[in-house]
Automatic annotation (TrEMBL):
Similarity-based family: Belongs to the sorting nexin family.
Record's keyword terms, sorted: Acetylation, Cell cycle, Cell division, Cell membrane, Cell projection, Cytoplasm, Cytoplasmic vesicle, Endocytosis, Golgi apparatus, Lipid-binding, Membrane, Mitosis, Phosphoprotein, Protein transport, SH3 domain, Transport, Ubl conjugation
Compositionally biased residues, Acidic residues: 160-169
SMART domains named among the record's database cross-references: PX, SH3
GO biological process, one term: positive regulation of catabolic process
Disordered: annotated span: 91-201
Protein name (database record): Sorting nexin
Length: 595
């Protein structure tokens, strides 16, 4: 019997890409449930066949009962089939826990709610989300929010062979990515919410001091940390703790997007050329490769360093020239940002991404990165501050200061984004139309004057006509100007919005570690830990504090440089814009006869 499915969301087919347009509520027949890359082949009632995203449909059971209590989409079915009963049970428990701490769209909501109280549940230290695994997306109705929001917590790559790597990740991987270019519509919001539990699953930490999963406890209470091969030194400079910057820096040029195909031409993708400036040797990467790099950096460094997300994936319109240009621009900004970070840029995973020489070397490096145990809070075990240990009071004060500043800056950035978006809409809509109306009205007036038959007003009528044309030219200048100045200011703000969206979880990790140290006296008194264990905890929290301060010094130096550059550019372009308008008005004025 043929498998039927109900379409949950509208999907518009990309012309020439063997896709099938379907509408919400439509019933289709599935002829191939998995052709790879998150796509299936379906047939509608008209007999038309084509590719449809698996996340967009739900299987209709033949017996009228739900196949799975938590949903029965094709993607869910495949996912659940791949899990053991024990893993599914643990993940379900974790998803429930994550929903409690991660509900709501504002990444600062948890920080704000617990500012005056404990950061963690009274049931135990394991209740607080920690590190990179807790970084998540913010959904706000902004033009630019489709590019720099922070996605749901990454749960690690699927276990499997390298065939998984050949799947088309440019298709739908997680429904939280699907937003249109203007804002997340109601359907998009529904898609994101309906799959939040599966895309945000985390296995919770057991209560301290017993634990099974890597967490703050494992780092703080390890009897002896293994000496890692990689070392991240922290020195004290003129402005406090700082990362050690490499003697030579480099950037990476993202260029030459080219369309490729797979699955015998059924699926297409865009491949970009990356050229590091320090080697001038190019490598090619698809968007899914950037996505893999982002996920590895988030998992490895996300507890200590904010990793802003990539521009979102897109199902429809992803091969249009304007979209490709915008994505390449944002990938360029993201890569430049990573190259500027002294820790990220020197990391093995980042260097391997830029410098692999063949497929074998790429896959070897990929496997090694995915098996890296020095990830999450364990990244702090690689850090070596060249400074004396800090006391707990100073550590807590530093953490509070970072939280206060980043929250305030987040509010300021969002306000500027809101104002900028309103100004953009005004400059590309009502304002040019007003100038056009003035221009047409002046030209109409000149036409009326010309009909008078009076011989002595030709010069005046010509001047009024030219003045009207000048205002029409000004209308075009006004409409085009945001692309020359406001665009760059908004893009910079969205980059920083992405950074700032990471800090609540980073601060949460630090707050959780501080609370653990505060409670260590009780554990010493009840002989659950030794005095030496407590001293180790204080030392390790001190290392975490030095890392936070080093990262903030890097953040501040970049912030000062970036905002100085982008606001200078904005003002320079504004000056040039108004000077151009003034010159046009002067030329129009010069045509009027002097009486």
């Amino acid at each position: 019997m043929a498998t039927k499915a109900r379409v949950m969301y509208d999907f518009a087919a990309e012309p020439g890409n063997n896709e099938l347009t379907v509408n919400e509520g439509e019933i289709i027949t599935i002829t191939n449930p998995d052709v790879g890359g998150g796509w299936l082949v379906g047939r509608n009632i008209k007999g038309e066949r084509g590719l449809v995203p698996t996340d967009y449909v739900e299987i209709l059971p033949s017996d009228g009962k739900d196949q799975f209590s938590c949903g029965n989409s094709v993607a869910d079915q495949a996912f659940l089939d791949s899990l053991s009963a024990s893993t599914a049970q643990a993940s379900s428990s974790a998803a429930s826990n994550n929903h409690q701490v991660g509900s709501g769209n504002d990444p600062w909501s948890a920080w704000s709610a617990s500012k005056s109280g404990n950061w963690e549940s009274s049931e135990g230290w394991g209740a607080q989300p920690e590190g990179a695994g807790a970084q998540r997306n913010t959904n706000t109705p902004n033009n630019w929010d489709t590019a720099f929001g922070h996605p749901q917590a990454y749960q690690g790559p699927a276990t499997g062979d390298d065939d998984d790597w050949d799947e088309d990740w440019d298709g739908p991987k997680s429904s939280s990515y699907f937003k249109d270019s203007e804002s997340a519509d109601a359907g998009g919001a529904q898609r994101g919410n309906s799959r939040a539990s599966s895309s945000s699953m985390k296995i919770p930490l057991n209560k301290f001091p017993g634990f099974a999963k890597p967490g703050t406890e494992q780092y703080l209470l390890a009897k002896q940390l293994a000496k890692p091969k990689e070392k991240i030194p922290i020195i004290v400079g003129d402005y406090g703790p700082m990362w050690v910057y490499p003697t030579s820096t480099f950037d990476c040029v993202v260029a030459d997007p080219r369309k490729g195909s797979k699955m015998y031409g059924l699926k297409s993708y865009i491949e970009y050329q990356l050229t590091p400036t320090n080697t001038n040797r190019s490598v090619n990467h698809r968007y899914k490769h950037f996505d893999w790099l982002y996920e590895r950096l988030l998992v490895k460094f996300g507890s200590a360093i904010p990793i802003p997300s990539l521009p979102d994936k897109q199902v429809t319109g992803r091969f249009e020239e304007e979209f490709i240009k915008m994505r390449m621009e944002r990938l360029q900004a993201w890569m430049t940002r990573m190259c500027r970070h002294p820790v990220i840029s020197e990391s093995e995973v980042f260097q391997q991404f830029l410098n692999f020489r063949d497929e074998k070397e790429w896959k070897t490096g990929k496997r090694k990165a995915e098996r890296d145990e020095l990830a999450g809070v364990m990244i702090f075990s690689t850090m070596e501050p060249e400074a004396p240990d800090l006391d707990l009071v100073e550590i807590e004060q530093k953490c509070e200061a970072v939280g206060k500043f980043t929250k305030a800056m987040d509010d300021g950035v969002k306000e500027l984004l809101t104002v900028g978006q309103e100004h953009w809409k005004r400059c590309t809509g009502p304002l040019p139309k007003e100038y056009q109306k003035i221009g047409k009205a002046l030209q109409s007036l000149a036409t009326v004057f010309s009909s008078s038959g009076y011989q002595g007003e030709t010069d005046l009528n010509d001047a009024i006509t030219e003045a009207g044309k000048t205002y029409e030219e000004i209308a075009s200048l006004v409409a085009e100007q945001p692309k020359k100045d406001l665009h760059f200011l908004m893009e910079c703000n969205h980059e920083y919005k992405g950074f700032l969206g990471c800090f609540p979880d980073i601060i949460g990790t630090h707050k959780g570690a501080i609370e653990k140290v505060k409670e260590s006296d009780k554990l010493v008194a009840t002989s659950k830990i030794t005095l030496q264990d407590k001293q180790n905890m204080v030392k390790r929290v001190s290392i975490m504090s030095y890392a936070l301060q080093a990262e903030m010094n890097h953040f501040h130096s970049n912030r000062i440089y970036d905002y100085n550059s982008v606001i200078r550019l904005y003002l320079e372009q504004q000056v040039q814009f108004y000077e151009t308008i003034a010159e046009k008005l002067r030329q129009a004025l010069s045509r009027f006869p002097v009486m």
